[in-house]
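Please think about what follows:
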Amino acid sequence: MRSLKFLPALCLAISLLAIPGAFAVAPSETENTDKGESGLPIPRFVSLRADEVNLRTGPGVRYPVDWVVQRRGLPVEVVAEFEAWRKIRDQEGVEGWVNKAMLSGRRTILVTGDIRTIRRNRSADAPAVARVEPGVVARLVKCDDSWCKVEIESYEGWLQRSELWGLYPNEKVE
């Protein structure tokens, strides 16, 4: 059995520079037209609900565990469904089957590339709110064409869409 262990976001993370404002969560919309057995779009992004999730080679407990992912909140992509099982893929392309109870519809994103600056507004010149390292998981609040509003702990601000993994190129989240 292989294991993927990720450090918690607090261990990776945050140089705090300002106090955030309040936020509200809005549902996301995708442009996907294929529907799975659940009636939800395939593919779609979700997040891991538990601290430890077994990825199996097939849809059921009789299939061996191939990977163990140890990171609650990690964004993953659902690429297939079979009864109560979902085939998921992570940012590195690792795939496996998990029970749907291990997944949450709460949207999160993964910071990619270099250390990124969360901005107070949708502008590269806006004041900094925090700096975050690659691999940090943030809650996705909303997203437009080029900027996404995110929350990490009690800090909220904007990151460029190109700095994130966990949403589709033309997906709007409101």
About this structure: Residues 5-32 have pLDDT under 50 and may be disordered. The chain has two domains: 8-25+109-173, 36-106. The longest strand covers residues 75-82. The chain has one helix and 18 strands.
